[in-house]
Design a protein that fits this description.
2 domains; 320 residues; single chain; mainly alpha
Amino acid sequence: MKLDQATAQRFARTALGHVTREYPNKLDHVMAGPQDAETPRELHPAFYGSYDWHSCVHSWWTLLTLRRLYPDLPEAQEIAALADVTLSEENLAAELAYAQRPEARGFERPYGWAWLLYLHLETTRHPDCAWANRLEPLARQFAAGWRDYLQTLSHPIRQGAHFNTAFALTLSVEWARKFDSDLAELIESAAQGYFADDRAAQCWEPGGDEFLSPTLMEALLMQRVLPPAQFDSWFAAFLPALERGEPATLFTPAQVSDPSDGKAAHLDGLNLTRTWCWRALGLGGDNAERHYAASQAAIDGDYMGSHWLATFALLSMLEN
């Protein structure tokens, strides 16, 4: 499990194959009237591909991250040229206008928000291109949404799919620390309010359609918002039997029964997310390797997995 040029090229080719693939498509779209019955590309001229909006956003994060890390990659020029066209001022203005609709208050909240912020953060690492300036207004729109949402969200959402609170806060706090210190403080405070008192996690996972580990994502968020000594104390109480291999389910990769079923395919994402979390928490080793091996073939397998899994594989590989 290593990010080298061959692996980067594999991920890049996979993502390039779907970021402009409009169909099949699963919209998150509230219509105010019949005039809002439009195609994915009409609604989202920048992020209409990859089966759904959020997968398109984070696939662009994947592509731009690979372009930065491997500037001599054969696909690097294609990535940049496509980004210039796709992440145009006109397209992103349309995405912003969509997000500002009254009916879009809950659009892609919080998963897509977090990935858009993370994509914007990545674009700032490409000073030779105009993508960051074009994307910033949309990022600011979702950052403002976080302020409203955290006032509304009295309890964290712990299930391991798109509404998971810990995952979205983990990505968003990285953006906020660079662009919005007040929001960063708000996220750090909210995370501690939601999770600081958790002890002896029962770890009821995997759920049948979960791609995030609720247990490990919570731990990763707390690692990102607590001072090291305070986190060590919290983590020891949160998973007190970890050294004995308990809870056993955390050490057992999930098995996908039908990779063509979008919900069942989520379990490949769970394995890759666990790989990422184990490595980020400094507990990788054989356990992370087993989880990655269980799902690495799905990265460019059936479209129900291949339109998004490369991102989570890349997340895991960026943790050394």
